[in-house]
Write a structure and sequence with these properties.
Elements: E1 8-11, H1 18-21, E2 30-34, H2 38-45, E3 51-53, H3 56-63, E4 67-70, H4 74-87, E5 90-93, H5 101-114, E6 118-119, H6 128-137, E7 142-151, H7 167-170, H8 174-190, E8 195-203, E9 213-220, E10 225-232, E11 243-250, E12 253-258, E13 261-266, E14 272-275, H9 282-297, H10 305-326
Helix pairs in contact: 4-5, 5-10, 8-10
Domain GFO/IDH/MocA-like oxidoreductase: 151-253
GO molecular function: nucleotide binding
InterPro entries: Gfo/Idh/MocA-like_OxRdtase_N, Gfo/Idh/MocA_Oxidoreductase, GFO_IDH_MocA-like_dom, NAD(P)-bd_dom_sf
Length: 330
């Protein structure tokens, strides 16, 4: 089968990431679109001439897609993923794939039993930026990493995804939504699969019960230290959507990536500045294209439920330590 022969469905198109995927879908392949919001689903389906549903199970039964791009509130992801595995379709599902590592482990185990194809959009794994870092510029052992990713305020979710502001529905706030990319990033760059969480402090600077600023300190299994800083705090503008800054220390120098520039400061060498993209948005299209090609070729995804589970286990530890630190009762 060729990618252009696939029957593709989109489930949960009210998710804010969906428009970023659409350019990566081959023309004429989308056969069905589902969302609780019928009007939104219809507007999304119109350019594709796709059938519209509010019940994704009906979509699966009637359209019988080969591949699904799945989106859902975090508390509904487990059920959706298990239904897709039972239907025998290939799929990708937005992170975090469930409310906690227990749910992700259940999905992973079921997928392994059924030999299901599931890709997770840890999109930095699909980027030239991280490929170049790993293969060209970080040739010496990494001793420390620091990732700072601060996005817009929580009010941006009120229009379409209010559930993001309730912990029981989302699992957590900025660290759950943003931090997972950089937990996975750290594991990817160091070829580690586990980490010890040494400390987490979460701030709750809004009326909602999710963290809006979060900092964690970890030690990866190879000894590399890692600081993660995420937030819903950045005053967004048309040109500036977020702050994204990476610092990676190796045995031979100090490297900073920010504002589309990689600054390499190695001992006894001139400083080098290299243009590298720091905006993750373009990589969703690439993720969609690569994932569909991997599916029809029988290739394991670069980021699968295995990588999602490793990240979820670490995230759960971070959340638990932050709860203890803040003496918060839920």
């Amino acid at each position: 089968m060729n990618v252009t022969d696939l029957k593709i469905a989109l489930i949960g198109v009210s998710h804010w990431h969906v428009p970023l995927y659409l350019p990566g879908l081959p023309q004429g392949t989308v056969v069905g679109i589902s969302d609780d919001d019928a009007a939104l689903a219809a507007s999304m389906a119109a350019p594709f001439g796709a059938k519209v549903y509010t019940d994704y199970r009906q979509l699966l039964k009637e359209c019988q897609p080969d591949f699904v791009f799945a989106f859902a509130p975090h508390y509904r992801m487990r059920e959706l993923a298990l239904d897709l595995i039972a239907a025998g379709v290939g799929f990708t599902i937005e992170k975090p794939a469930g409310l906690n590592a227990h749910e992700v482990a259940e999905i992973y185990d079921r997928a392994e039993q059924k030999k299901a194809f599931c890709a997770i959009p840890f999109v930095w794994r699909y980027s030239d930026t991280v490929t170049d870092l790993k293969e060209k510029y970080l040739k010496d052992p990494i001793v420390h990493m620091s990732y700072k990713f601060v996005a817009g305020p929580p009010s941006r979710y009120l229009a379409t995804s209010r559930w993001m502001l309730e912990r029981k529905l989302a699992g957590g706030g900025c660290m759950t939504n943003l931090g997972v990319h950089f937990i996975d990033m750290a594991l990817n760059l160091t070829d580690c699969t586990t980490a010890e969480v040494l400390g987490s402090i979460y701030q709750y600077a809004s009326p909602y019960d999710i963290e809006t600023y979060a900092t964690s300190l970890l030690r990866l299994s190879n000894g590399t230290s890692l600081v993660l800083e995420t937030g819903y705090a950045y005053p967004m503008s048309e040109n500036l959507k977020r702050e994204n800054r990476w610092t990676i220390v190796t045995t031979q120098g100090y490297n900073i990536l920010a504002e589309n520039n990689l600054e390499l400061r190695h001992y006894d060498e001139p400083t080098r500045n290299i243009s590298l993209n720091t905006d993750s948005d373009p990589y969703y299209e690439i993720f969609a294209r690569v994932t569909l090609n991997d599916f029809v070729s029988g290739i394991r995804p670069r980021a699968s439920l295995k990588e999602m589970l490793a990240t979820s286990i670490i995230l759960d530890q971070m959340n638990a330590l932050a709860d203890a630190q803040n003496k918060t009762k839920w």
